[in-house]
Amino acid sequence: MALTAHRKGDRTETGAPSPRGRAVRRLNRPDPAARSRGGRRFMLVGLALASVYSLFPVYWLMIAATKDRVGLYQSNGLWFSGWHLWDNVQQVFTYEDGIFLRWTANSFLYAGVGSLGGTLIALATGYGLARFDFPGRGVVFACVVGSFLIPIALLTLPLYLLFSAIGLVDTPWAMLIPCLINPFSVYLAKVYTEATIPFELLEAARIDGAGEVRIFFSIVLRMMTTGGATVFLLAFVNTWNAFFLPLTVLRGEENWTLNLGLYNWSGKRLESGVDVTSLVLTGALLSIVPMAIMMVAMRRYWRSGVTLGALK
Question: Could you tell me which residues are beta bridge partners of residue 15?
């Protein structure tokens, strides 16, 4: 049987008689444009579904925060039932003598100061690993990467025992000290340093007589603004959302974080029969406002920072 072939555009089609005598077409090379369009549509559908999945809890939380206790249980959970948001916010700020504001201040202290100090340490460590050659450098970097495999929950009990032995339990230091060490931030700082700090610039500064400390604070930190902002933002969000560590090392209400305080409020329904679910939901909505403001204010830095890390 003879095979016939003909070319249409950039595709080659071959025809062969079928057992019933009709020609069968086989597409040797699929159309790249059609395949690209199909992949793009699949990606868009996947991103849309992921966006809905991620934003749906926030939508439900916003709806629930506008309801009173009766509307919360007797109305449609996905739509409004009256507007009691301002009343709920006022009750959150005044309940138990305004302890919610104290928890907010504590969260800002732990997340802000801890993340700022952790960012500075991570940038210095990443810079040292990327631009200095010393014995054991590969072992140190391997330990940094290997520490990713250790979940923070596994370290909580040893941290509690250590802080209990030195008398730091139920103090702000029990939250601040763990925030200063973040292996993932060190890894990001190393990647950013390798991408943005050339050896020639450092050698020129040394030839001009600048010391290593001056080089780091005057040159490296200024060139690492994008990377530092990204590291700080990730550390801030991670510390702000921390739950298991403050649950273990903080005892008194005056030192609790927002997450731990709201968790305590949610348990009062079982302990004392007082239903403060609407206050818990309103407080949860208020707790995400600082992170949203932080993301909007620093979007210019973390967008370019994430892109730089991806390219590297």
Answer: 4, 25
